[in-house]
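Tokens in:
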């Protein structure tokens, strides 16, 4: 057994924690609970992966932080991501409080200096987190009380992030969107709909998507649960292709020409029989579809038909 706090112990712990997360992650369950993270064991002893009260886990005796955590907040409390991304496309993570010398903030700086990987636990719902790992701290920005985070090796290997070319910035932004924004949006929407397709009630998480009501390429297509629908892959594709639409009364409408087609059982049972079905709603009212977004999207469907 290696000594707690030694470099060997630190490296072994990080490796074991990420391997454990690999085993916990399945196509039907990518998230972990707070209790799971508090109950993690290493070399026969309980070794929490998160701090019970602080956002940064810097174990006693360790030089560098082990993990960072973003607490769940509802869409109406703050913009989900806009204030967390820098002009270089890298995500920022705020210090613990406003004291750069707090031991957790020193742990972030040591993680940067040593180049060690961390785990980022991002809140999806109360007590439920989507883990991102390994991530690296690529810059310390004490004036703004924050650090810059690389979400994968492609971002890590970019040249000096303070002098990226326009092409490199767009590439970095795309990584951030694909690696964090899209997975977080997907998990938050699917959890809100209790892992079920809002149209056909299919309950296999690996076959579910988070469909945007207003597309994310539109300025109004915000990554909020109220702009999302949990749909199975066939109904997501049909919604995007305007084969089916959702009326302002939250009833499914299948395009008229599709209703008159004759084909196999998928067309009949998977699409045509969905005409007139009421959309399943999340339990929480604030998670339900934005009426204005539904109406704008329905107009696009109606014109397409």
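Residues out:
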């Amino acid at each position: 057994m290696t000594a707690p706090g030694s470099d060997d112990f630190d490296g072994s712990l990080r490796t074991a924690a990420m391997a454990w997360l690999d085993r916990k992650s399945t196509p039907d369950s990518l998230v972990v609970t707070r209790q799971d993270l508090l109950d993690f064991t290493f070399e026969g002893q309980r070794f929490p992966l998160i701090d019970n009260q602080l956002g940064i886990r810097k174990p006693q005796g360790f030089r560098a932080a082990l993990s960072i955590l973003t607490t769940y907040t509802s869409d109406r409390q703050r913009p989900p991501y806009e204030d967390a991304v820098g002009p270089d496309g890298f995500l920022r993570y705020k210090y613990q409080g406003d004291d750069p010398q707090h031991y957790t903030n020193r742990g972030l700086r040591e993680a940067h200096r040593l180049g060690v990987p961390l785990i980022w636990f991002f809140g999806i719902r109360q007590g439920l987190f989507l883990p991102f790992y390994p991530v690296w701290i690529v810059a310390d920005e004490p004036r703004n009380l924050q650090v810059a985070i690389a979400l994968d090796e492609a971002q890590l290997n970019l040249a000096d992030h303070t002098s990226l070319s326009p092409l490199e910035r767009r590439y970095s932004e795309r990584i951030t969107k694909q690696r964090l924004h899209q997975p977080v949006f997907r998990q938050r929407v699917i959890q809100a709909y209790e892992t079920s397709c809002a149209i056909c009630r299919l309950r296999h998480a690996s076959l579910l998507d988070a469909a945007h009501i207003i597309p994310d390429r539109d300025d109004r297509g915000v990554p909020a649960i109220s702009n999302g629908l949990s749909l199975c892959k066939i109904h997501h594709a049909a919604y995007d292709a305007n084969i089916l639409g959702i009326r302002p009364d939250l009833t499914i409408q299948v395009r008229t020409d599709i209703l008159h087609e004759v084909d196999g059982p998928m067309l009949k049972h998977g699409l045509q029989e969905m005409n007139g079905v009421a959309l399943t709603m999340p339990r929480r009212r604030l998670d339900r579809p934005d009426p204005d977004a539904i109406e704008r999207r329905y107009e696009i469907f109606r014109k397409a038909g």
